[in-house]
Design goal:
Blueprint: H1 4-8, E1 34-44, E2 49-55, E3 60-67, E4 70-74, E5 77-81, E6 86-89, E7 95-98, E8 105-114
Antiparallel strand pairs: 1-8, 2-7, 3-6, 3-8, 4-5, 4-7
Length: 118
């Protein structure tokens, strides 16, 4: 039997965990050795984003696109993230986030304090 959640994720990388019904999951990240410092949902209008100029800081970001798509500009490269995709952005890399699409984007941003080594 196929359930709506099972069918909704078909072809998008969603999988049904063993023992689940009507439940599909998409892995966004593996192990992250960091403490969550902050977490926010951003709504970015078409043409919106920032910061200008690109910036750096002590914490890393895990960006997860919940709706629409965004461009992550990092150290001179641009990566387009569609809905349901994520990217870990090191805080020491020059970076910014932009919506170059024609519809609003919604992005979950999780700020991560890096784990101490040693």
């Amino acid at each position: 039997m196929t359930h709506a959640a099972d069918a909704a994720g078909a072809g998008l990388g969603f999988t049904v965990p063993p023992g689940h019904v009507g439940f599909a999951a998409l892995r966004l990240a593996g192990r992250i050795d960091a403490r969550i410092a902050d977490c926010a949902i951003a709504r970015i209008e078409p043409g919106g984003g920032g910061p200008m100029p690109e910036h750096t800081h002590a914490h890393d970001h895990l960006f997860v696109v919940l709706a629409g798509s965004v461009e992550i500009r990092m150290d001179g490269t641009t990566t387009t993230l569609p809905v349901h995709q994520s990217m870990l952005v090191p805080g020491d890399a020059l970076h910014s986030v932009w919506n170059t699409a024609q519809i609003p984007a919604t992005v979950l941003g999780i700020s991560l304090d890096r784990a101490e080594n040693g």
